[in-house]
Design brief:
Blueprint lengths: L1 H23 L10 E19 L8 E7 L7 E8 L5 E4 L5 E7 L6 E18 L12 H7 L14 H11 L5 H15 L1 E2 L9 H7 L1 E2 L1 H14 L4 E10 L4 E12 L3 E5 L10 E2 L4 E6 L6 E4 L8 E11 L19 H10 L2
Parallel strand pairs: 7-8
Antiparallel strand pairs: 1-6, 1-15, 2-5, 2-14, 3-6, 4-5, 6-12, 9-10, 9-13, 10-11
Helix pairs in contact: 1-7, 3-6, 4-6, 5-6
Amino acid sequence: MWVLLRRLGLAIATTLTVTLMPWIAPTARSAVTNATVSSNATYTVIRRMTIGNPSSHSMPVLQMQAPLLNMGSLNDTVTLTAISAPPVAVTNDSHGNQLGIFRIPSLPPHSRITITFRYTAEVRAVRFDLKNVSGSYLNNSLYTRYTNPQYGLNEGIDTNAPAIAALVQRLLKNVVNPAAKAQILFRWIAKNIRYNYSMKPSGNALATLRTRTGICTDYAALYVSMLRTAHIPARLIGGYLSDPTTGTAAFHDWVQLYLPQAGWVSADPTWGAGYFADIGDVYHIPLYLGLEPYITIYGQKAGSQGPTVTTAFTVSHQTHPPRLLTTYNWSRLPFEPVWVTRLSEWMLN
């Protein structure tokens, strides 16, 4: 009875929240006074992770750690709306991304199991007016973390490397305003780094600077390295690019930098001119702080073979408001009235 009352309460509370929230909290209003939200779009994001046992022996217990999308910023809000197998626990990585811990009790020989995640992504086109942005940074935890030379080494970021420091010093000279500094560094990358259409990454910021070529991850890592070297807090953003005008649909990386009086400002050095403090489209879908977290599996090998993991990722543009949740395997509790079951199913579909 207690479980029934809890579920009924959840259904009623969720229905009221979904109904009233648009009236309580308009989504187009920004707390940052120099940012303008010009348009928005809604996407359905579906990710499938398939864990396989390629061996002829059973794998009795496996534990998988996998990223859960939980971005919430001025540019977007990503909400988990359904998952086919709930995690047994949730934790966070060093960037603040959520990680789900999944337990697989048994994986028979030559079998596989798929976990499906469904998200709704509300993406907003944001433009910043930085003409009057000035001031200095507080020496707080945000500033310390995102200017720390040791933070991001595993992402190809080379803060304070001699070659990068020399270039930053030459470009900025006596410039004091952090917004002006960030724009000068952005323009240099947009002008001097060429895209590597062989899709082979440089590997780190120093290699990109030396070869003057790279892919989106390399552009972003070099820009973050230069910003941090100039004492401007910055971080990588891992996301997805869905541009119907060009047919582009691929993972993509760009940058957020922190400016006094403005907060986190987005910039895409790969796309170059026009994309500094102005992600003026709804095609950039932020998914992760930093690069995409790894999927890690712990457990017993079957002979000499370990489990395999494959992922599939699809993004579709919604042309109508989404319903709240979908595709849970929701079975009726004993003695639960049918109308409560139907209300729960409506909430989850």
